[in-house]
């Protein structure tokens, strides 16, 4: 008898397989145990976007709301595409470069993976 994985989002003990992914019936979180294990081993840092998708260094993301920037008269608009991100520890856990703004740190809760 094989042991089924536990949901990494809510710790539910009853996820079910769907192809390569596992799905949690309680919170709806979907994950690939093999991919998640390799990500945790490589960086030790788990960062998820606003939809619960796991982010990795080098991913492309898109903003989900207008983000005001201190010291600038304009904000980063909804739908701004950001490439080649770097994940870091802390409150603003994504480091990136944005055209017309330069280097920035952004919270993962305001972006989605493309």
SS content category: mainly beta
Radius of gyration: 16 Å
- Going by CATH, the architecture of the largest domain would be Roll
Number of domain units:
2
**CATH level-1 class of the largest domain:** Mainly Beta
Helix content: under 10%
CATH superfamily of the largest domain: SH3 Domains
Please tally the β strands and state the result. Answer: 11
How confident overall, as mean pLDDT? 86
By CATH, the topology of the largest domain is: SH3 type barrels
Walk me through the structure.
The chain is mostly beta strands and 114 residues long. The protein has two domains: 1-44, N-terminal domain of TfIIb (Single Sheet), CATH 2.20.25.10; 45-114, SH3 type barrels (Roll). Helix content is 10%, strand content 28%. It contains one helix and eleven strands, in the order E-E-E-H-E-E-E-E-E-E-E-E. It has one helix at 33-43; strands at 16-18, 21-23, 30-31, 47-48, 54-55, 61-63, 81-82, 86-87, 94-98, 102-106, 111-113. Strands 1-2-3 form a three-stranded antiparallel β-sheet. The longest helix is centred in the middle third of the chain and has 11 residues, at 33-43.
């Amino acid at each position: 008898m094989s042991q089924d994985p536990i949901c990494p989002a809510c710790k539910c003990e009853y996820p079910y397989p769907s192809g390569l992914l596992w799905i949690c019936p309680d919170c709806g979180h979907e994950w690939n145990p093999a991919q998640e294990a390799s990500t945790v081993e490589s960086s030790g840092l788990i960062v998820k976007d606003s939809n619960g998708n796991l982010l990795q260094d080098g991913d492309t993301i898109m903003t989900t709301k207008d983000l005001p920037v201190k010291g600038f008269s304009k904000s980063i608009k909804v739908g701004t595409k950001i490439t080649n991100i770097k994940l870091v520890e802390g409150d603003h856990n994504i480091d990136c470069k944005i055209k017309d703004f330069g280097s920035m740190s952004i919270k993962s809760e305001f972006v989605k993976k493309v």
